[in-house]
């Protein structure tokens, strides 16, 4: 590549925004407090959920909770990316990672990646009614079991693990529907408060849900 082709500024190709929304940091809390970003535009990645990290080629299990801007409808692209204008609809109030990201030089972004991340407890006041549901969800439906699963051999899950996963999937769904019913939550808020439903996470391990007599059982795909 000749010297003239070396990128040194944003060409607004949108590629970074199309790959997904950023993780939020403590410094981004003011964007929620200022109503530039709503809870409905967030997704919680719970501790123990498998995710791709910037610098890793394979998914890893998160050690800490991550709050991200979620994708647009059924897409990876950030919910705030305006495809028609090839621009960010909250540009003046975009999160820290977006400010730091230079696709031609990721040093600044790497310096903050995974550090001082925002979590649900930074955003939700302890006396909000949803907190007791979130606490129960964490206690009764933790994701530690996912560490036993292998991405490279997604079909190799033994029967006792499959039974345990099936129980957790049903607990996860029951707690969500109880909270939705009591608090009249939208689907967007449910995803922020409780993260991705476990049965959807398990699809990444080639497991599929099947409804039998009102309960879900997990099966190999
Ligand atoms: S907030 Fe804006 S700059 Fe950041 S990923 Fe979304 S669309 Fe792109």
Characteristics:
single chain; 221 residues; alpha+beta; 2 domains; two-stranded antiparallel ribbon; 9 helices; 8 strands; binds iron/sulfur cluster
What is the gist of this entry?
By secondary structure, this protein is α+β, with helices and mostly antiparallel strands. It is built from nine helices and eight strands. It is globular, with a radius of gyration of 19 Å.
What does this structure look like?
The chain is of the alpha+beta class and 221 residues long. The chain has 2 domains: 3-120, no CATH class; 124-220. Helix content is 33%, strand content 13%. It has 9 helices and 8 strands. The chain has helices spanning 15-18, 29-33, 96-100, 107-112, 120-123, 130-140, 159-183, 187-194, 198-202; strands at residues 42-45, 50-51, 60-61, 66-69, 81-82, 87-88, 207-212, 215-220. The strands form 4 sheets. Strands 1-4 form a two-stranded antiparallel ribbon. Strands 2-3 form a two-stranded antiparallel sheet. It has a two-stranded antiparallel ribbon with strand order 5-6. A hairpin with a 2-residue loop joins strand 7 and strand 8 (215-220). Helix 6 (130-140) runs antiparallel to helix 7. The longest helix is centred in the C-terminal third of the chain and has 25 residues, at 159-183. It is globular and about 60 Å long. The chain starts with 14 loop residues before the first helix and ends with a strand. It binds iron/sulfur cluster.
């Amino acid at each position: 590549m000749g010297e003239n082709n070396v990128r040194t500024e944003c060409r607004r190709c949108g590629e970074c925004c199309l790959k997904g929304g950023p993780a939020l940091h403590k410094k981004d809390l003011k964007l929620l407090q200022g109503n530039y970003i709503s809870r409905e535009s967030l997704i919680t990645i719970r501790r123990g959920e498998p995710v791709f990290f910037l610098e890793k080629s394979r998914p890893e299990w998160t050690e800490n909770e991550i709050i991200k801007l979620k994708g647009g409808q059924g897409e990876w692209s950030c919910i705030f990316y305006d495809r028609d204008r090839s621009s960010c609809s909250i540009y003046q109030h975009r999160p820290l990672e977006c400010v730091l990201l230079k696709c031609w030089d990721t040093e600044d972004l790497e310096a903050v990646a995974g550090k001082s991340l925002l979590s649900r407890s930074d955003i939700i006041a302890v006396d909000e009614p949803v907190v007791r549901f979130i606490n129960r969800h964490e206690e009764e439906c933790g994701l530690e079991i996912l560490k036993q699963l292998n991405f490279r051999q997604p079909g190799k899950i033994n029967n006792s693990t499959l039974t345990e996963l099936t129980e957790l999937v049903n607990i996860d769904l029951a707690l969500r529907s109880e909270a939705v019913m009591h608090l009249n939550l939208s689907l967007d808020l449910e995803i922020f408060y409780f993260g991705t439903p476990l049965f959807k996470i398990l699809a990444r391990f080639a497991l599929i849900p099947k409804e039998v007599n009102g309960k879900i059982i997990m099966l190999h795909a």
